[in-house]
């Protein structure tokens, strides 16, 4: 059962007055501003809109079931990618990752996708397209990734941690392939009771992951499709595709 009108009104009233020291070093404080029904092709959800005191961006939570006061709520952190999520770009695998999360959570009684509005790892859409263009002109993966900008991880997690607190989630099962993310969230006060591996179904679009090999010496997992073009990693953790070998999965975490 989703949140009903009365608790929604209470939550909105509380949030209207909410102000706190905030999460993380930057003191990020978020507030719920509105909650609405969101039926989707992945199941019925509610969409929760937040405002915050730092970046003026409207971060959202896509919520399945009543998560207030709930334990072991499945949670996926997803960073916005207009080209992937909305346009189906194959330069990244963001849409596959988002759909896999919504499909998995849509089958559960409760769960949350936190949709964080940090396009192109926080550098914005315009600059992300610039990085794509640099790649088109032959820049290598590392250079293009540098141009794309590294994510300010600390802030991502601070926003996410506060959003979960605003939703009164007691504990979560984090959908990630990176066990280290658990510590990051815990440091910010989130009770992470466990980890759910985030596994993408194999399809022609993510086949390039299956063809990659872990480099013996390096820690980079170089993602190339069969035409030899590299793929930018835009989400903060690397996807596991059904069919990957143990060794490949392990290499993602090193
Ligand atoms: Zn706050
Ligand atoms: Zn993307």
Task: Tell me about this structure.
The protein is of the alpha/beta class. It has a single domain (5-199), classed as Rossmann fold, CATH 3.40.50.10990. 33% of the residues lie in helices and 20% in strands. It has nine helices and nine strands. It has helices at residues 5-16, 82-86, 94-106, 125-136, 141-148, 153-166, 180-187, 207-210, 246-253; strands at 30-40, 43-52, 60-64, 73-79, 111-116, 172-175, 192-196, 199-200, 240-241. The strands form two sheets. Strands 1-2-3-5-4-6-7 form a seven-stranded mixed sheet, with helices on both faces. Strands 8-9 form a two-stranded parallel sheet. Strand 2 (43-52) and strand 3 form a beta hairpin. Helix 4 runs antiparallel to helix 5 (141-148). The longest helix is centred in the middle third of the chain and has 14 residues, at 153-166. The chain is globular and about 55 Å long. It binds zinc ion (ZN) (2 copies). One zinc ion binds next to helix 2.
Q: SSE layout and pairings?
A:
Layout: H1 5-16, E1 30-40, E2 43-52, E3 60-64, E4 73-79, H2 82-86, H3 94-106, E5 111-116, H4 125-136, H5 141-148, H6 153-166, E6 172-175, H7 180-187, E7 192-196, E8 199-200, H8 207-210, E9 240-241, H9 246-253
This protein binds zinc ion (2 copies).
Mean pLDDT: 86
Q: Count the strands?
A: 9
Question: Per the principal axes of the C-alpha atoms, what is the gross shape?
Answer: globular
How many angstroms does the end-to-end distance come to?
A: 40 Å
The kinds of small molecule bound in this structure are: zinc ion
- CATH-level-2 architecture: 3-Layer(aba) Sandwich
Radius of gyration: 18 Å
Considering the protein shown, what is the CATH homologous superfamily? GTP cyclohydrolase II
Give the percentage of residues in beta strands: 15-25%
The secondary-structure class comes to: alpha/beta
Helix content: 25-40%
Number of domains: 1
> What is the CATH C-level name?
Alpha Beta
User: Major sheet, described briefly?
Assistant: 7 strands, mixed
Order of helices and strands: HEEEEHHEHHHEHEEHEH
What is the name of the CATH topology?
Answer: Rossmann fold
The number of helices is 9
- Low-pLDDT segments: 214-220
- Order of strands across the widest beta sheet? 1-2-3-5-4-6-7
């Amino acid at each position: 059962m989703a949140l009903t009108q009365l608790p929604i009104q209470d939550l909105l009233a509380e949030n209207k007055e909410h102000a706190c020291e905030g999460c993380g070093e930057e003191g990020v404080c978020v507030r719920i501003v509105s909650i609405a029904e969101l039926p989707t092709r992945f199941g019925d959800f509610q969409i929760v809109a937040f405002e915050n005191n730092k970046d003026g961006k409207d971060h959202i939570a896509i919520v399945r079931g009543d998560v207030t006061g709930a334990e072991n709520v499945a949670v996926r952190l997803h960073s916005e990618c207009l080209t992937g999520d909305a346009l189906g770009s194959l330069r990244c695998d963001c849409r596959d990752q988002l759909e896999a999360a919504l499909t998995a959570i849509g089958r559960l009684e409760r769960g949350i996708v936190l949709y964080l509005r940090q396009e192109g790892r926080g550098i914005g859409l315009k600059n992300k397209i610039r990085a794509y263009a640099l790649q088109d002109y032959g820049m290598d993966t590392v250079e293009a990734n540098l141009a794309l900008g590294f994510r300010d991880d600390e802030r991502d997690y601070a926003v996410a941690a506060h959003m979960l607190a605003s939703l009164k989630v007691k504990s979560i099962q984090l959908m990630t392939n990176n066990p280290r993310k658990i510590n990051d969230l815990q440091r910010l006060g989130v009770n992470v009771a466990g980890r759910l591996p985030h596994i993408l179904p194999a399809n022609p679009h993510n086949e390039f992951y299956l063809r990659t090999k872990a480099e013996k010496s390096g820690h980079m997992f170089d993602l190339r499709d069969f035409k030899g073009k590299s793929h930018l990693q835009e989400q903060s953790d690397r996807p596991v595709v059904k069919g990957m070998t143990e060794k490949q999965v392990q290499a993602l975490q090193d």
